[in-house]
Amino acid sequence: MNDNPFEVIKLKIRAFAEQRDWDQFHSPKNLAMALNVEAAELLEHFQWLSQQQSSSLDTETLAEVAEEIADIQVYLIRLADKLDVDIVAATEAKMEKNVQKYPAEKVRGQSKKYTKYQD
Amino acid sequence: MNDNPFEVIKLKIRAFAEQRDWDQFHSPKNLAMALNVEAAELLEHFQWLSQQQSSSLDTETLAEVAEEIADIQVYLIRLADKLDVDIVAATEAKMEKNVQKYPAEKVRGQSKKYTKYQD
Amino acid sequence: MNDNPFEVIKLKIRAFAEQRDWDQFHSPKNLAMALNVEAAELLEHFQWLSQQQSSSLDTETLAEVAEEIADIQVYLIRLADKLDVDIVAATEAKMEKNVQKYPAEKVRGQSKKYTKYQD
Amino acid sequence: MNDNPFEVIKLKIRAFAEQRDWDQFHSPKNLAMALNVEAAELLEHFQWLSQQQSSSLDTETLAEVAEEIADIQVYLIRLADKLDVDIVAATEAKMEKNVQKYPAEKVRGQSKKYTKYQD
Question: Which of A95, C117, D1, D38 is 20 to 30 Å from B48 by CA-CA measure?
Answer without folding.
Answer: A95
